[in-house]
Amino acid sequence: MKTLAIDIGGSGLKALLLDEQGNPLGDRDRIKTPKPATPKAVMSLLIELAQRQGDFDRVSVGFPGIVRKGIIYTAVNLHPDWREYDLATQLSSSVGKPVRVANDADLQGMGAISGEGVEMVITLGTGFGTALFTEGHLVPNIELAHHRFRKSETYEEQLGRAALKKIGSKTWNTRLLKAIESLSRVLNYDRLYLGGGEVKHIEIELPENVTIVSNMLGLLGGIKLWKD
Ligand code: BGC
Fold first, then answer.
1. Whose Cα sits closest to atom 4 in ligand 1?
2. Tens digit of pLDDT for each residue in 6-55?
3. Which residue range(s) make up the domain with 200?
4. Does residue 100 share a domain with residue 125?
């Protein structure tokens, strides 16, 4: 039973084949996210990625927006045409295999958490992904990204990739620590995991209950969508 794990990001579309236990079978493949990232443009590259990976039995997809039952509701960093697009059904009919889709931060979180207590996940990439779990159970589609953080800007406006490029790593790190402090006071999690491509810029000393996790979990977490 091979699972094709796909991670749709604002800058890259990634794919990795997983075995039954969720271990990688081969190397991660990546194609740049098309601009504009319409469903049509992204779907044709996903099909190309799938073909390049060869044989698989099912597909897991992490999507950077609100997802319910395989249908997309928001895609702030991709394109407005994603609204109400049935990604699971469309991709499944293109590749001829069952497809499950979840929010990218939720999926990454599934790969990162221990399953004990209240656990939060933040992904730092193009956007600011957030996921929340209690005793291993997900509260799906927690969207703190677009919630007001400071100076009338949202978490994503203050800490997304565009902000990092604009303000530089030092200020971004200071802001990140402020965000951690603020979210810790609101959500009172036991543990926070930081993932996503931009964790490589973290230079601050993190609180004791905060752990940096591998960005590969955005793909490896895909196996968890089939644990039911
Ligand atoms: C989206 C989230 C997503 C995050 C990380 C945000 O802009 O609203 O759904 O998880 O970016 O990709």
1. 129
2. 999 999 999 999 999 999 999 999 999 999 999 999 999 999 999 999 89
3. 114-214
4. no
